[in-house]
Design brief:
The strands form 2 sheets. This protein has a 6-stranded antiparallel β-barrel. A two-stranded antiparallel sheet has the order 1-2. The chain has 133 residues and is an alpha+beta fold. The protein has one helix at 107-132; strands at residues 4-5, 8-9, 20-27, 36-43, 47-52, 61-67, 76-88, 96-105. The longest helix is centred in the last third of the chain and has 26 residues, at 107-132. The radius of gyration is 15 Å and the shape is globular.
């Protein structure tokens, strides 16, 4: 179910969970193929927002590995995504807030990823219902 916040229209509901991420740019290729390690600020089935010390150009393709906090043993999910925003963080020098639209995904990993997102969305809904009672 899409979520709307002011003029910001989202394709999927986001959750504020700090999933562990490994990220590297694949297109255009970079000299260094090292992984950037960070955590998600928020995440959905359609995209991820995170901080990085690397600047990514809009439209750059990233490979993203997400560690599922619910299934540590078999919970790695690999995606490819497109950077749709990369802006400096005013309160931190040499840090960027990066928004990525998820595109291609490995099918087995997608199953685990979707299960984790659904789990946290359900917990969020239950918590909101309790607060309104």
């Amino acid at each position: 179910m899409p979520e709307e916040q002011g003029s910001d229209k989202r394709r999927a509901t986001r959750i504020k969970r700090h999933f562990l991420l490994k990220i590297r740019q694949t297109n255009p290729p970079t000299i260094s193929q090292n992984w950037d390690i960070t955590t998600a600020r928020n995440i959905s089935k359609a995209g991820i927002l995170f901080f990085s010390s690397n600047h990514y150009d809009i439209g750059a393709e990233l490979e993203v590995s997400v560690t599922n906090p619910v299934r540590w043993k078999d919970g790695q999910s690999r995606f490819h995504g497109i950077v749709n925003r990369c802006q400096p963080v005013k309160s931190m020098e040499n840090m960027y807030e990066v928004a990525v639209d998820l595109t291609r995904v490995e099918e087995e990993g997608k199953k685990y990823f979707d299960e984790a997102i659904d789990y946290f969305l359900q917990r969020k809904t239950i918590k909101e219902e309790r607060e309104t009672d």
